[in-house]
Amino acid sequence: MCDAEARQDGVLDMQGLDWQHGLADVLAARGVTAAAYVPDTRLQGILAALAGHGIRMRSLTREEECVGYAAGERIAGGRPVVLMQSSGLGNAINALGSLAVPYRLGIPLVVSMRGTLGEANPSQVLMGRAAVPLLSALGIQTFSLRSGAAVRQTTDGVLTLAYDAGECAALMLEAELGGGRDAS
After folding, report:
1. Is the pTM of this model over 0.90?
2. Best exposed site among 19, 23, 134, 166 by fewest CB in 10 Å?
């Protein structure tokens, strides 16, 4: 498990980067069977915790490959999750808009935001600014995660939209969470 402590009201008390383990715990508890991802510094703790839960991990080189892999998993009856950095979201737009959304595959996305609060790399800014509008244009709802205290409720809500309602939904990991940014 993680270093987070459950409180009486069922809210996790996340300190430091424990939100990463808490997020993975919620994904595992909700029956995620596979994780397709493009590696990213902020996602490393989540990915390691998912692997620790025995969830099948699939590292791919492009974000649209992750969506395609997840689509196959959903069609086969699995519960995949796609994890990516916002700067790669543009690569996934066609796969989301021509496959996942129209066929109501209900794929949950976990998007590590770049180009937002405190970003020093100017090449990340445009896609960081465009991420939510791009997803919204496809009818994909986005939910920002800014504190560890909201991990359980927000992640659970995104998974309910995806798995139960058949709607793709995105959990946006905002800069306020911490978790590091690499220099790329």
Report:
1. no
2. 166
